[in-house]
Amino acid sequence: KVITEITCHGKGAWKLFGKDGVVIDIGGQDTKGIVLKSGRVMKFVMNDKCAAGTGKFLEVTSNKLGSDIENIDELAKDAIPENISSMCTVFAESEIISLLAQDIPKENIAAGILKSIANKGISILNKGNLEDIIAFTGGLAKSKELVKMLEEKLNKKIFIAEDSQIIGALGAAIIGFK
Length: 178
Hints:
The chain is α+β, with helices and mostly antiparallel strands. Helix content is 48%, strand content 14%. The chain contains seven helices and four strands, in the order αβββααααβαα. Helix 2 (55-64) runs parallel beside helix 4, helix 2 (55-64) packs antiparallel against helix 5 and helix 5 (106-127) packs across helix 6 (144-154). The longest helix has 22 residues, at 106-127. The radius of gyration is 16 Å and the shape is elongated. The termini are close together.
């Protein structure tokens, strides 16, 4: 049986949340918006070029701050987000180096990195005219600061599973069990 990653994420999210709506998945290498109706994928949108706005983007850019993904929330909490205009990982690295050279606080840059990821996620959702979000899956859903930014921008509550990074695997297991 060949099952797509999209179907697996949809099935896993449906099992946990059981509602029609949209799943936003921001993982290590891509971002997806998935519309679910009665547990089935009706439509989806993915980033189509590179790692912009993904876990890899966060990993590379947070390393430039001397931090890592696990500590980015602590660094960004209550900071004023600096504008990170480039979503290309290579250009964003250069931008961050320049901001550090201008003595911009690391905390503001960290918040800016998360804000740029939130903006990219919203952009994915807007490309597909995806309406109500029910769930945020993928490893980046563990970032409380990112979740807060998304909820503020969308003016909606986002539901997150405790083990958000394994929702696709849960879906695959459910499909495989049948």
